[in-house]
User: Fold this.
Amino acid sequence: MTTQTSQPRTAAETAREPTDARDPHLRLAKLFDPGTLRPLSTRDAVGASVAWGRVQGVPAIAFCTDGSQQGGAIGLAEADRITGAIDLAVLEGCPVVGLWHSGGAKLSDGVEALHGFAKIFAATTAASGRVPQISLILGPAAGGAAYGPALTDIVVMAQKGKVFVTGPAIVRSVTGEEIDAEGLGGGEAHGRKSGVAHVVAASEDRAYAHTRALTSLLGDRRRCEPSLAGAPHRDLRELLPENPRRVYSVHPVITALLDDAGEHSFEELQPRWAPNIVVGLGRLAGGTVGVVANNPLRRGGCLDSISAEKASRFVRMCDALGIPLLVIVDVPGYLPGIEQEWGGVVRRGAKLLYAFSEAVVPRVTLVTRKSYGGAYIAMNSRGLGATKVFAWPDAEVAVMGAESAVGILHRRALAAASDEDREDLRRRLTEQQRDSAGGVGRGVELGLIDEIIDPRLTRAHVASSLAEAPGRRGDHGNIPL
Amino acid sequence: MDGQAYPNNGGIPTMAFTCTAEIVGTVIEVLVAPGEHVNAGDPLVVLESMKMEIPVLAEVSGIVTDLSVTKGGKVAEGQPLLVILDP
Assistant:
């Protein structure tokens, strides 16, 4: 593809007619809306290409390493082209998408190739929080080519994507561990075990579709338009089990609150890693929102070390990129345990407190069922600066569940009661405790909850709160926490 | 739940998926018995933890074997609960 099609093609150009599926121009064309691609680099020996185009109408810049030449190896020339693309995106204020297929540094370039990678890392970090950065991994992304994407906001992996610092052969020779490339750095490894991949796609086409949807969500930051919130919807409490001890998936609640845009209504990030918290992007009344939600179906919805860290990074990304937040809360507390304490639940939990406290984007909290203890604080509580805190009727906000509190506060009275009276006494005390300490009314009195809302009007309340709040944006990067 | 070749199946290669507890807790219900066929998504065991009843769901369809928990027992995070043989 050249911009001057009238000129006769040279023999070299004809020979390089893109028939290889790894050809960077073919790959870039798959990312952009048909007919919008404008090459920003010439076809030459440099194994990286850059183009401008539109993604669902949103202007974006993308680069692609050339997997058809030396496995996409990156030397100084390739690195300079990539950093140029990132710098240009910052100047233009548009998203930058990296399409990666690279075995790492070009050995023939020696230490210069390492320097090239260092420049890519520095450019990515300088752009962090200023423009959205999305990586799509289409083949191997090894060594420096693993860290390039890892520094960006979102990493999408196609089914042939493999990410690792050192490959299976070196792992075997150093540690004696036997594993293939897929096992070491494929979709299962990074979608479920490491959390490196935000999206693992079942096919290359699906990977492009997710990348396009995410580029559009992050790049087109329209505000919520309350008139688009629509008429009252059904009572979403139907989606919650009657028994408060029962768990349920929060996904139907999220999709009911977001605009319906078919299969890309909610682009969930890191769905299989720390699944007890759900994070992702969608639109609400036309505006892009970031959703953070406890998921009772997994680990009862408890916060823990890893889920706190997952949410922190997402909150900071949204704040840096100016995306308002909707926080859906149903949390029994922080998960206790030695593994949690030694696993740094204090250190990682602190990140979530920091992320919310720091965030200046509009951020609305909805307590659907319960919010207890330290987890109450962490889930964008009033004290951390929530723009608005809404609760559905019958929600409970307390230090702990009424039942547990009664067991501690009235231990003696319960022990002294006769066997037949004990359960009755426990029931009465629990009722009293719920009214005095945990009921949503007390939260309203104290100003910790702004309003108890009709669940059928949830979308309207959230949309107008997000629209009325000043559209500020955090002044910081998005360190990959 | 991780898939591994299951050794004791009369020489026929079979995938075995070990279901583990994702949270520390008490077993309050065991909903399946060895030899029973389950479908992916079926609840297998219900744990109680943090005052919540948390079902352990089958990630694959197959036959239940190596059931190692009983009602009332305590389980640690990551503890194997049962194995599903994927024929």
About this structure: Chain A has a mean pLDDT of 93. Chain A is about 40% helix and 20% strand. The longest helix of chain A spans residues 419-438. Chain A touches chain B through 19 residues (CB under 8 Å).
